[in-house]
Amino acid sequence: MRVSVLVRPKPGILDPQGEAVEASLRHLGFSVEEARVGRLVDLEVEAGSETDAREQVERMCAELLANPLIESYEIELGGNRAER
Amino acid sequence: MLVFPGSNDDWDAALALEALGGDAVLVWHGDRELPDVGAVVLPGGFSYGDYLRCGAIARFSPAMRAVADFAAEGGLVLGICNGFQVLCEAGLLPGVLRPNESLAFVCRDVAVEVERTDTAFTSRCTRGQELTIPVKHGEGCYFADSELLAELAGAGQVVLRYREGDNPNGSVDRIAGVVNAEGNVFGLMLHPEHAVDPLLASTDGTLVLATLLDAVREQALTPA
Q1: Sequence-distant (≥ 6) Cβ neighbours of residue B159 within 8 angstroms
Q2: Which of A24, A83, B36, B189 is most buried, by CB atoms within 10 Å?
Q3: B2-221 domain in CATH 3.40.50.880?
Q4: Nearest CB to A70 within list B52, B96, B100
Q5: Which tens digit of pLDDT belongs to each residue from A14-69?
Q6: Distance (Å) from the C-alpha of residue A55 to the closest C-alpha of chain B?
Q7: Which residue of A has its CA nearest to B60?
Q8: Would you list which residues of chain B are within 8 Å, Cβ to Cβ, of chain A?
Q9: Domain residues of chain B, as ranges?
């Protein structure tokens, strides 16, 4: 099953990469209020059901894909994205 | 001395410890057991290419499980730079290290103040002493949320702070080195192994490494 995980810097966490992107976009003439840079992880998961897949990926996020001190994540499967 | 794929200061740290009278053994990350050692050092470098987040992958290596057991039994563990990042990701130290505020790799001498001298890593220092030791990292910005910071302050877990005006990476509260609540695991972004010879301008790194060797010798003399 195809599962995507979107990892984002939590609100309030300094994101120097996002700031650099924002400054560059402004430099190009775009009017950008804010840019935050996260990470996208696409997975092909062996799972019996969507619930099973979600459970597995939740564990992956908790154990490796995101650091809960600084990052939040969203899991997307079958086009349904659930924010955590 | 643990060696991960991508470690690059393992030999420097081993040589520095040996120059100070220590006996360093290199242990490959795939080893499931540690030899009979008095302390474990996690060296600087770019373990596993810094993929995902610095230190995030290294903590799953077999040797790290052995290090976690070693630490849980009170064994002394020192994490230098990437080693500090690995210890944070492994949950052996609180907090996390993020990309430098400047986004630039920083490689220079920095001054830190010693806040705790009652640790197995700093007892050769005096309280408030300023040490000059080099840093070289792209992701050394220490972060802890306000709750964790209060906890660290309350328990006195901040051992080293960058001197006011000399914070090289934007670390919160200028934190340069922290110890765990039990006091046996310590991590710092500075490289003490690069400051052990007058040729390298500063010898302040010897204070940290020699203190660790003192603690190991003391342990060996104390009957279990």
Answers
A1: B114, B115, B116, B119, B121, B122, B177, B178, B179, B186, B188
A2: B189
A3: yes
A4: B96
A5: 899 999 999 999 999 999 999 999 999 999 999 999 999 999 999 999 999 999 99
A6: 21
A7: A64
A8: 52-53, 56, 60, 89, 95-96, 98-103, 141, 143-145, 148, 170
A9: 2-221
| ipTM confidence score | 0.76
Q: Which of A10, A59, A64, A72 to mutate to test the interface with B (most CBs of B within 10 A)?
A: A64
A24 touches chain B (CB under 8 A): no
Q: How many CB pairs under 8 A join A and B?
A: 33
Question: Model-level pTM greater than 0.95?
Answer: no
